[in-house]
Amino acid sequence: MAEQITIERAQQLKQKPDENKLGFGQYYTDHMFILEYHADKGWHSGRVVPYQNISLDPAAKVFHYGQTVFEGLKAYRTESGIKLFRPTKNFERLNKSNARLSIPPIDEKLAYEGLIQLLNVDRDWVPSVEGTSLYIRPFIIATEAALGVNPSLSYLFMIIMSPVGAYYAEGVNPVKIHVESHFVRAVAGGVGEAKTAGNYAAGLNAQEEAKEQGYSQVLWLDGVHRKFIEEVGSMNVFFKLNGVVVTPMLNGSILDGITRNSVITLLKHWGVPVEERRVSIDELIEAHHNGTLEEAFGTGTAAVISPIGELSYHGEKYVINGGETGELSAKIYDTITGIQNGKLEDPFGWLVALD
Ligand SMILES: *Cc1c(COP(=O)(O)O)cnc(C)c1O
């Protein structure tokens, strides 16, 4: 029997922020979704409740051993109602991350139903100004108060939501990226392909160093050879080399991005050659010398497409496409955002209507 989700509405609603000044992850909606797990009971007590603090024992395992996973997806307000972009993929991926972090699998249907109920209650929070959306953050934390190093016997799954602004306030702008040759993000066999907190904590120092030097993100190389391209910050990465679009294959240390998957699908649909394979930094530099490194861009839910205008590696600077957004990058961006906001047809059935 399907478990019942209860709804407790907030007594007082918050004032909504100015949709033109949302930024990213600064405001939270009136409600949140909570689902509990205990080894004896499984996942249970799903409920929509007013957005609130949570109380945890200081010994809760998440604080000590980082047993936690998260997801990120968006809801869009279109002329034909509120739409989610490929949401079932996020819940599938959540369970893949769970498996790697020894967190019990969640009932994907129940978690998704929780999201739908939450969205229903907070539907007025989906912003309508062009480029804005409601960012949705599902996550799981280990809550058992016990310092032994073993999987927690209890967990909380929660969903919080935040109205976010247009990622590029003044149109899509290429970013400068530092190719990191000292620190690494992940290695195959580790947790690089899970969306788990430790990967991000481990990347902060390199990111801060890159920022000090005027770069907005880090391009990670593989942890073994320090040679093969992995990802950019928390985005997957693509290069257009002599007309062929190349992206690192899923090798166990990078994230299986849903935007990455959407971009590959779109390119194939257009008949643009696309290859998932190993790409070395040397290959990119050689292509740059030959004039065949035509475009580069990152992909992720937050920015969708983030064009790369410059790479720095071992003190050398490599400007790509004159530091401008490439034609193909712009076309992909316009197409995916157009599908998301309902202005373009959705030939792949990516959008899911809330109602
Ligand atoms: C979330 C994330 C991505 C992008 O995934 P999307 O599903 O496209 O949002 C890429 N790399 C890392 C490390 C991520 O955390």
TrEMBL record:
Lineage: superkingdom: Bacteria
Cofactor(s), names only, from the UniProt record: pyridoxal 5'-phosphate
Pfam family, one: Aminotran_4
GO molecular function per UniProt: branched-chain-amino-acid transaminase activity
EC class: transferase
UniProt record, GO biological process: amino acid biosynthetic process; branched-chain amino acid biosynthetic process
Metabolic or biological pathway, per its Swiss-Prot or TrEMBL entry: Amino-acid biosynthesis; L-isoleucine biosynthesis; L-isoleucine from 2-oxobutanoate: step 4/4; Amino-acid biosynthesis; L-leucine biosynthesis; L-leucine from 3-methyl-2-oxobutanoate: step 4/4; Amino-acid biosynthesis; L-valine biosynthesis; L-valine from pyruvate: step 4/4
PROSITE patterns tied to this protein: AA_TRANSFER_CLASS_4 (PS00770)
Catalytic reaction annotation: L-valine + 2-oxoglutarate = 3-methyl-2-oxobutanoate + L-glutamate; L-leucine + 2-oxoglutarate = 4-methyl-2-oxopentanoate + L-glutamate; L-isoleucine + 2-oxoglutarate = (S)-3-methyl-2-oxopentanoate + L-glutamate
Parts of the chain that traverse the membrane: none
Residue positions, PTM N6-(pyridoxal phosphate)lysine: 195
PANTHER family: BRANCHED-CHAIN-AMINO-ACID AMINOTRANSFERASE (PTHR11825:SF44), SUBGROUP IIII AMINOTRANSFERASE (PTHR11825)
Protein name: Branched-chain-amino-acid aminotransferase
Native species: Paenibacillus montaniterrae
